[in-house]
Amino acid sequence: MKIAMLAPISWRTPPRRYGPWEWVVSLLTEELVRQGCEVTLYATGDSLTSASHRWVIPRPYSEDGEIDPKVAECLHISAVFEEADRYDLIHNHFDFMPLSYSALVRTPVVTTIHGFSSERILPVYRKYNGRTYYISISNADRHPDLTYLDTIYHGIPVEEYPFREKKGDYLLFLGRIHHDKGTKEAIELARRAGLPLLIGGIIHDRDYYEQGVAPYVDGRLVQFLGTVSNEEKRELLAGAKALLHLINFNEPFGLTVIEAMACGTPVLAMRRGSMAEIVEEGKTGFLLDSLEEGREKVALLAELSPYRCREWVENRFTTAVMAAKYRSAYQKILGGCDPCL
């Protein structure tokens, strides 16, 4: 059995720094190959993989201003569908656009929906509902108009994350600098708790950063580190007193949340989106209904076990668990045939 894995091309697979969808595609692809699956990855030409690799676009368009994103996307998506008869299954991680090609081929298409950027994209998902297969990344992110084959949580290579029982005295924010991700709220909570805050991430909204974040960055109580590497990120997570995930939107999943817990670091998160599925309340972190609750919960962090945080991820959010569940989903689509055997 042969699987075509269609990655986004905004960033390299795996990304050099930022690029959550590309990172998940890479983790899944590499684990499926390790488990014996025959996978062809469609990604940027500079991508790194142990799978077979096909590409049209040499570099990510977010890193090369000479590449027109729409032209690149059309060429990239059409490449896999023009070669659809080579495969038993196409696994789409490219959002809604590839669905418009799906009725033109006989090869079944399964789409992991990594979130809904807008209600305006839903007509495409509705049109192909029941004609293709949808996977949600959390139960909270399921849309009532759509039928899903399964919910499959993201997994990470836990063994690559340093576990640290003794924590530092700082709080940590990692993510896009944007209202959705609650960077300003993280600053406010850290100030109320009287603890230093380290901020790492890509500036996704320049006005938001300049008006709501930059005025508080003093290099002492609030430090802005910019986009950090994977190695830097893991060290920051391992040493933090807690990860702050004070989101202002319904988070589809939250990769940094499971990364933090893998390091034995608890999470303070707003009770929105997937957080109630990802964080074990009162065990691996605390879920907040308001920012006012945060100061009280910071004082309780020392009562949480770093070992419980690590174990929670080891049992639920590993690449092996993720790949096994995708293999099960593939079997359902292929009439009981495991594509990796």
In short:
With 341 residues, the protein is of the alpha/beta class.
Topology (elements, then pairings):
Elements: E1 2-6, H1 20-34, E2 38-42, E3 52-54, H2 69-82, E4 89-92, H3 99-102, E5 109-113, H4 122-127, E6 133-136, E7 150-151, E8 171-174, H5 183-193, E9 197-200, H6 206-213, E10 222-226, H7 230-239, E11 242-245, H8 255-262, E12 267-270, H9 275-278, E13 285-288, H10 294-298, H11 306-316, H12 319-333
Overview features:
341 residues; six-stranded parallel β-sheet; Rossmann fold; 2 domains; globular; single chain; 12 helices; alpha/beta; seven-stranded parallel β-sheet
Polypeptide structure, described:
- It is a single chain.
- The chain is an alpha/beta fold and 341 residues long.
- It has twelve helices and 13 strands.
- It folds into two domains: 2-155 and 318-333, Glycogen Phosphorylase B (Rossmann fold, 3-Layer(aba) Sandwich), CATH 3.40.50.2000; 158-316, Glycogen Phosphorylase B (Rossmann fold).
- Helices cover 33% and strands 16% of the residues.
- Strands 3-2-1-4-5-6-7 form a seven-stranded parallel beta sheet, sandwiched between helices.
- The termini are close together.
Q: Give the termini separation.
A: 8 Å
The helix tally amounts to: 12
- Largest sheet, spatial ordering of strands: 3-2-1-4-5-6-7
CATH architecture identity of the largest domain = 3-Layer(aba) Sandwich
Shape: globular
How much of the residues is beta strand, in percent?
15-25%
What is the CATH top level name of the largest domain?
Alpha Beta
CATH superfamily of the largest domain: Glycogen Phosphorylase B
Q: Work out the radius of gyration.
A: 20 Å
CATH topology of the largest domain: Rossmann fold
Q: How many runs of DSSP E, i.e. beta strands? A: 13
Extract low-pLDDT stretches.
Answer: none
Total domains, how many? 2
Mean pLDDT over all positions = 96
Q: Spell the H/E element sequence.
A: EHEEHEHEHEEEHEHEHEHEHEHHH
Provide the helix percentage: 25-40%
Q: What is the makeup of the main sheet?
A: 7 strands, parallel
| Class of secondary structure makeup | alpha/beta
